[in-house]
Predict the structure.
Amino acid sequence: MREFLVEITTTVPEGTAQDEVDRRRAAEAVRARELAATGHLARLWRPVGELRSVGVWRASDEEELHEKVLGTLPLHAWMTFAVTPLEPHPNDPGSSV
Protein backbone atom coordinates (compact mmCIF):
# COMPACT_ATOMS: atom_id res chain seq x y z
CA MET A 1 0.00 0.00 0.00
CA ARG A 2 1.09 3.57 -0.65
CA GLU A 3 1.04 6.23 2.04
CA PHE A 4 -0.65 9.62 1.81
CA LEU A 5 -0.52 12.68 4.05
CA VAL A 6 -4.11 13.87 4.32
CA GLU A 7 -5.23 17.17 5.83
CA ILE A 8 -8.92 17.15 6.67
CA THR A 9 -11.06 20.16 7.49
CA THR A 10 -14.59 19.48 8.65
CA THR A 11 -17.22 22.20 8.38
CA VAL A 12 -20.63 21.42 9.83
CA PRO A 13 -23.34 23.05 7.71
CA GLU A 14 -25.13 25.96 9.34
CA GLY A 15 -28.41 24.88 10.90
CA THR A 16 -27.45 21.22 11.38
CA ALA A 17 -29.09 19.80 14.50
CA GLN A 18 -26.67 18.96 17.31
CA ASP A 19 -28.00 15.40 17.58
CA GLU A 20 -27.12 14.84 13.89
CA VAL A 21 -23.60 16.19 14.52
CA ASP A 22 -23.21 13.95 17.59
CA ARG A 23 -24.50 10.89 15.72
CA ARG A 24 -22.10 11.42 12.80
CA ARG A 25 -19.12 12.09 15.08
CA ALA A 26 -19.79 8.88 17.03
CA ALA A 27 -20.04 6.95 13.75
CA GLU A 28 -16.83 8.64 12.58
CA ALA A 29 -14.95 7.33 15.63
CA VAL A 30 -16.17 3.79 14.92
CA ARG A 31 -15.20 4.01 11.25
CA ALA A 32 -11.74 5.41 12.10
CA ARG A 33 -11.10 2.39 14.35
CA GLU A 34 -12.20 0.06 11.55
CA LEU A 35 -9.91 1.78 9.03
CA ALA A 36 -7.01 1.60 11.50
CA ALA A 37 -7.64 -2.12 12.02
CA THR A 38 -7.44 -2.72 8.25
CA GLY A 39 -4.24 -0.68 7.92
CA HIS A 40 -5.79 2.24 6.00
CA LEU A 41 -5.39 4.75 8.84
CA ALA A 42 -1.84 4.74 10.19
CA ARG A 43 -1.70 7.93 12.31
CA LEU A 44 -3.95 10.89 13.04
CA TRP A 45 -3.19 14.23 14.71
CA ARG A 46 -4.97 17.47 15.45
CA PRO A 47 -2.74 20.57 15.31
CA VAL A 48 -2.83 22.45 18.62
CA GLY A 49 -5.61 25.02 18.67
CA GLU A 50 -7.07 23.96 15.32
CA LEU A 51 -10.16 22.05 14.27
CA ARG A 52 -8.56 20.24 11.34
CA SER A 53 -6.76 16.92 11.40
CA VAL A 54 -3.63 15.63 9.72
CA GLY A 55 -3.02 11.96 9.17
CA VAL A 56 -1.08 9.28 7.38
CA TRP A 57 -3.47 7.10 5.41
CA ARG A 58 -2.76 4.04 3.25
CA ALA A 59 -4.34 2.78 0.05
CA SER A 60 -3.23 1.11 -3.15
CA ASP A 61 -3.64 4.40 -5.05
CA GLU A 62 -5.28 7.81 -4.74
CA GLU A 63 -8.52 6.59 -6.34
CA GLU A 64 -8.92 3.88 -3.69
CA LEU A 65 -8.02 6.41 -0.99
CA HIS A 66 -10.84 8.73 -2.05
CA GLU A 67 -13.49 6.16 -2.99
CA LYS A 68 -13.01 3.27 -0.58
CA VAL A 69 -11.33 4.91 2.40
CA LEU A 70 -12.03 8.63 2.86
CA GLY A 71 -15.34 8.33 1.02
CA THR A 72 -16.61 5.92 3.69
CA LEU A 73 -16.21 8.39 6.55
CA PRO A 74 -19.58 9.41 8.03
CA LEU A 75 -18.50 13.08 8.02
CA HIS A 76 -17.25 12.89 4.41
CA ALA A 77 -19.93 15.23 3.05
CA TRP A 78 -18.77 17.92 5.47
CA MET A 79 -15.04 17.44 4.83
CA THR A 80 -12.48 18.92 2.50
CA PHE A 81 -9.27 17.00 1.86
CA ALA A 82 -5.76 18.01 0.87
CA VAL A 83 -3.94 14.83 -0.19
CA THR A 84 -0.17 14.54 -0.67
CA PRO A 85 1.22 11.21 -1.91
CA LEU A 86 4.31 10.16 0.08
CA GLU A 87 7.34 8.10 -0.79
CA PRO A 88 10.15 6.86 1.42
CA HIS A 89 13.04 9.23 2.07
CA PRO A 90 16.54 7.72 2.01
CA ASN A 91 17.42 9.48 5.30
CA ASP A 92 14.27 8.42 7.17
CA PRO A 93 15.43 7.42 10.69
CA GLY A 94 12.45 5.06 10.93
CA SER A 95 13.46 3.15 7.83
CA SER A 96 14.60 -0.44 8.28
CA VAL A 97 17.21 -0.08 5.51
